[in-house]
């Protein structure tokens, strides 16, 4: 017969398992994981600078809510339009901030949202056009109060 487990024993065991799960997870992405995430999207295709405008404040007081707008110079016509916009970072827990899929009926190639930033870091936006080319822009953002942290304050 098994020994009855007390509530205290169960909570101690559950807490230990939770701590183990937290310590095994990487605390943040790195430039290498960001590069790998970008390669997942673009494959071996070259990524050119230009056509993409990434607007993020250069100095952010609070990383919990950072405004971001990505726009791409495109006529958004059936024969020439933006298929997708992908945003990457190098220090958040995950390297891919978001993927936005567009088509010629979108009217204009622009997305706006708010993001969380774990620390001061580089943000990269990459747009895939209907002709198969990839275009990008990047910005460096300084964050004075970080978000997305795994460590207790």
Taken in chain order, the helices and strands follow as HHEEEEEEEEE
Mean pLDDT: 86
Estimate the helix proportion, in percent.
Answer: 10-25%
Strand content: 35-45%
Total domain units:
1
Q: What's the main sheet like? A: 6 strands, mixed
First-last Cα distance: 44 Å
Examine the secondary-structure arrangement and name the CATH architecture.
Sandwich
**CA-based shape:** elongated
Assign the CATH topology. Immunoglobulin-like
CATH superfamily: SoxY domain
Q: Which structural category fits the helices and strands?
A: alpha+beta
pLDDT under 50 segments (min length 5)? 20-26
Radius of gyration: 20 Å
Count helical runs.
2
CATH class: Mainly Beta
Count all strands and give the number.
Answer: 9
Describe the structure.
With 153 residues, the protein is an alpha+beta fold. The protein has a single domain, classed as Immunoglobulin-like. It is built from two helices and nine strands; from the N terminus they run H-H-E-E-E-E-E-E-E-E-E. Strands 1, 3, 5, 6, 8 and 9 form a six-stranded mixed beta sheet that branches. A three-stranded antiparallel beta sheet has the order 2-4-7, with no helix packed on it. The radius of gyration is 20 Å and the shape is elongated. 24% of the residues are buried.
């Amino acid at each position: 017969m098994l020994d009855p487990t007390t509530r205290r024993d169960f909570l101690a065991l559950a807490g230990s398992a939770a701590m183990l799960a937290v310590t095994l997870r990487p605390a943040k992405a790195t430039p290498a994981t960001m590069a790998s995430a970008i390669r997942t999207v673009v494959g071996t295709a070259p990524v050119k600078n230009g056509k993409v405008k990434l607007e993020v404040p250069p100095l952010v007081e609070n990383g919990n809510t950072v405004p971001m707008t990505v726009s791409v110079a495109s006529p958004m016509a059936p024969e020439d339009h933006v298929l997708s916009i992908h945003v990457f970072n190098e220090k958040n827990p995950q390297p891919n901030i978001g993927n936005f899929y567009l088509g010629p009926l979108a009217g204009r190639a622009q997305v706006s949202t708010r993001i969380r930033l774990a620390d001061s870091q580089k943000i990269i936006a990459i747009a895939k056009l209907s002709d198969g080319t990839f275009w990008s822009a990047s910005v460096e953002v300084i964050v004075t109060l970080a978000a997305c942290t795994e460590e207790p304050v």
